[in-house]
Amino acid sequence: MLSRIHQAIDNMFSEMVEIRRYLHQYPEVSFEEYQTAEYIANYYENLGIPYEKNIGGNGVIATLKGAKPGKTVALRADFDALAIQDEKDVPYKSKNPGAMHACGHDGHTATLLVLAKVMKEFQDELEGTIVFLHQHAEEETPGGAISIVGSGKLDDVDAVFGNHLWATSTLGNIETRQGVFMAGTDRFEITILGLGGHGAYPHQTKDAIVIGAEVVSQLQNIISRRIDPLKTAVITIGRFHAGTTFNIIANKATLIGTVRYLDPEIQSIVKEEMERVVKGICIANNAEYELKYSEGYPPVINHEEETELVFEASKHIAGVKNAIEVAPQMGGEDFAHYLNVKPGAFFFTGAKKEGHTYPHHHPKFDFDEKAMPIAAKMLIGAYFTYQEKHK
């Protein structure tokens, strides 16, 4: 049956591309994906597959119950876009100003929808139940996964698998690892309150820019001098806002950034050290501060057995060139919330285009659409290998 499923997926490649390009033209950012959710729901309505809308927000869950007994396995695709202006010169360029599918979620959605259409034709031969999990708001904390978990709609699921089309990895490669695969992602905001004044009389002020610059520099020493060199963490300042014009010393500076970590113990050290560094610098400069630290997505921790099933599934797919165990990634994913409550695994499907490649979240991001059938085969392959393992 698996070979017939693969052939059916290949036969529907043009529909995958059509769906993906339609969604690419009409992106909706996190928590505002109303039309996209409606599109997904209508697709399942036309297929005759039972579904539910508004799960944990804009989530959509469809359920295909096979004619034969078996386990219930969820296959997840996210469908939100980013607040980025699309700068590609392609016919399917975004038509929504300031919004773009710059991470491949349009491809994830097209992959899962067409896979559902294919599997509907095999329902009478199917063991177990496939849960097609369409998740909103992966890009923006607190994310959609945690609210979907909280809805209770996955309580009866035995395992969950997820795929990410990875535009910087070779087409045909499958990449994952057991244990920690992707980083935890936190956010912080530091406000420094000094004393503004005339640019000619700095001695009468408390320059928030100078204080903020010292904070930026010293925060990096947390990584280089406070964290075990064999451990991993990142502190990035993504925004530094202060001042109004050239001859006024700023009284306020705002620094916004992210912390990435693989080990919760390291997360605790970074939080503690950040507070100490900022407090110490501000005391030394007789300034005040406020540090807001927000914990975001936890690390993606793949389960051992389910990760092995992903590698096993890859052996039976003609389009897979290599299945590779890779080093942990410092990017984050709220798929972590599913893995905190259910067995499962998350993996990358290589989708690198020929020629120059732009990274994820870039205004000219794109991916090789030939990766979508491979991803579909991997997802259903993981489903079948799980069913076989748990008979």
Low-confidence stretches: none
Shape: elongated
Return the structural class: alpha/beta
For the CA atoms, what is the radius of gyration? Answer: 23 Å
Tell me what the CATH architecture of the largest domain is. 3-Layer(aba) Sandwich
Look at the structure and give the CATH class of the largest domain.
Alpha Beta
Q: Provide the spatial order of strands within the biggest beta sheet.
A: 1-2-4-3-5-16-6-15
Number of helices: 10
The figure for the number of domains is 2
> Biggest β-sheet: count, sense, barrel?
8 strands, mixed
- Beta-strand percentage range: 25-35%
| CATH homologous superfamily classification of the largest domain | Zn peptidases
Jot down its keywords:
2 domains; 8-stranded mixed sheet; Alpha-Beta Plaits; 391 residues; alpha/beta; 34% helix; 27% strand
Describe what you observe in this structure.
The protein has 391 residues and is α/β, with parallel strands linked by helices. The protein has two domains: 270 residues, 3-Layer(aba) Sandwich (Aminopeptidase), CATH 3.40.630.10; 114 residues, Alpha-Beta Plaits. Helix content is 34%, strand content 27%. The chain has ten helices and 16 strands. Strand 1 and strand 2 form a beta hairpin. Helix 1 runs antiparallel to helix 10 and helix 2 packs antiparallel against helix 4. The longest helix is centred in the last third of the chain and has 21 residues. It is elongated, with a radius of gyration of 23 Å.
